[in-house]
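SEQUENCE WITH STRUCTURE:
===
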Amino acid sequence: MAQSDKGRASGEDAAGVGDAAILLQPVSDSTVAAIDERLGSNAAAVLFEDFIVAVDTGMRPPAARLFRQALQETYGRPVRFVCLTHYHADHTFGLGAFKDCLVVGSAAIWEALEQSPDWTPEGQQRFREEDPEAGTWLDEVERVWPSVLFESRMDIASGEKRLQLHASGGHTRCSSWGYVPTEKVLLAGDLIFAEQVPFAGDGTADPEAWIATLRSWLALDVEWVIPGHGPVAGRDEIVRQLAFLEELRTNTLATVEGDGQPQDIAVPATYELVRAPWFVERTLARWHAFYSACQPGAQQPED
C-alpha cells in the first residue's frame, strides 16, 4: 500500500531550506515518520507537550541534522530524547546530531555498538565501496554512546501521553520497539520491513524471539506501524511479515533436517525479491546456523 493511501498519514509537514528539507509524515496526532532515502533508514518521533522524542537517527549525519531541524522548527519544541531501536549503522550513525540529548537503548545495545564492525577501518572502507557518496559524510560520523539503558521496559511519559519502550531481541540481540497506546501507533524499527523481505541475517538475529515479538503485537491495539524500512503500514503488515517469518522458519527446519545447505532454503514468495543477493544470502545463512544449533547435540552458533 502506498504512503498516499494511509489516511491521516498521507499529510506532510516540511521544515528546512527548499529541496533540502526532510519531510515529516504525520501518522497520528503526536507521532511522525521521516521516510527519506538520505537518512538510509526510517526515523520517527513522538511529540510531547514540551519536548520531542526521536526514534532512531538515520545513517548520514547531514540528513540527521536536517531531521532534527525539521522536528524542532515544525513543532516548536526541543528534541530531548533519542531512542535507538538497535545498533545498526543505518539507524545510529546520525547520533552526532543528537549528542546533547538523552540517548536511550536496550541494555544489550552498549556491547553491540562496542563490538560493531562498522566502526573498524574495514567497516568504514566497506561503506565507501557501497556508497559512492560516503566520502562526503563518513568523516562526520561521531561515536555517541547511550546514556540511559533499560532491561525489559522503559516508559517516557508526560501528562497522559506515554511512550512504551520494550526490549525484545529478534532482528538483533539488542532490538527494541516503541508503542504509543493512546494513539495506537507501533514504532517497530527493523522488526518490520514494510512491503519487503526483511533483513534477518545479523549475527545475533534470533528468529524465535522475532516471531514471538510479532505474535505479541497481535494482542495490542495497533492502527499504524512505523517500520524501520518501507512505508508506514497498518496492522495487516504485522500479519504479513509474521507469516513470512513463520514460513521461512518452516522451510529452514526442513532444510536443516534434510542436511541441506543455506542456499537450499526456499524463500517465501510473500514479497518480491528486489534486494542485492547478499541481503538474502546472509539471512539464509544465519537462520540455517540458528536452527542447526537447535538440533540435539548441536552447539550454539557464534555471533
